[in-house]
């Protein structure tokens, strides 16, 4: 039996991967650099949102097993990832 939380996380990743593949096909069909960059910009939003969603689902799943201190470390690490990704 598959854990519901793992199934949810995997489903989000499959959806994200499918969006990436569809976006690549759209870029090829458009055959225009400006339009391809626009599609790529949309993908820049999807990646961090999927990361945040899957991390949140995973943390909810293991919240009872982690101490408060370890949970803070995980949240600090995720925050550092987002600062590194989004900071220009």
Spell out the key features of this protein.
transmembrane, mainly alpha, flat
Strand tally is 0
Number of domains: 1
| Shape call | flat
The largest β sheet comes out as: none
Order of helices and strands: HHH
Strand composition percent: under 5%
Decide which structural class fits the backbone.
mainly alpha
Distance between the termini: 44 Å
Overall radius of gyration? 16 Å
Question: What is the number of helical segments per DSSP (H or I, 4+ residues)?
Answer: 3
Helical content class: over 70%
What's the mean pLDDT score?
A: 87
Low-confidence stretches: none
Outline of this structure?
With 88 residues, the protein is mainly α. 86% of the residues lie in helices and 0% in strands. The protein contains three helices and no strands.
